[in-house]
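Q: Fold this one first, please.
A: Sequence and structure below.
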Amino acid sequence: MDQSANSTLRDKMNIRLLNKNNEMEAINKFMPFPVTASELPGHTYCAVVKDEIVAIAALRLMEGEICYIDSMATNQNFESTIRHEALDCLTKTILDLAKNLGFKKIFATTKEDCIIERAKRHGFQLSKQKIILKEIEQ
């Protein structure tokens, strides 16, 4: 896609904080697994075109000088060029926010090669570490 087409997409897209009171049903239609409002960080942003959410991404604050990109997902009802532009805009928004909040490092986890390639374009480096996870039973 040429630069002018990207600019046109960007002009039609609105990046804003997710309204957790009214938009959970809409995002759960395209999230890989259902989430509740309390599970999403306070800094959860959405990319919107014509009043419909294209994608979401969140900044999860951690202790120290490190933070985490969380809950990145796209609405498959939009064509891929719009979804990709939405993710690029959201990534830039999250990176700018992390910098403004004084964080020194940011990380994300994914198994998707396309997300890894996008992250590299934004200056991320691929780590060789594997992530382990355990649910804590209550």
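Q: Good. Now the second chain.
A: Here it is, same layout.
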Amino acid sequence: MQMTGKKTSNIADIKEHTFDVVLNKPGGGPIGLTVEVRSDLSLPVQNVQKRITDKAVAKAKRNKTFTAEEREQNRYDMITAAIVSFKWGKNADGEEASFNGEQLPFTPENALKIYKALPFAVKQLDDAIGDETNFF
């Protein structure tokens, strides 16, 4: 049914956008790394989720489950699929931030280095990626 004479809003125009997560020290200010992310509803993240689900189903058929290490890696894989870019800047003290002297570009390998060194960053990214209000 077509609407006539009334102002309408086309819901097909609602599109996801990316969101910048400013990583903060627990109880402190920014560390100088902002991570641009997609939502967990985005296609790249959904593809990883499907792959993980397929693995879980295959394991269940053999009466097995994911190990703690596999669960952790699955979480990292989901977050990594959501990342678009790293944006380096100044930390709370006004100093240029780096990771062991380098402003690393985003790659899955570099993301893993940051996850391992800064577990609080994993939680902040996970929380932001799961919050739909950040993306629409």
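Q: Anything worth noting on the second one?
A: Strands lie at 19-24, 30-37, 83-88.
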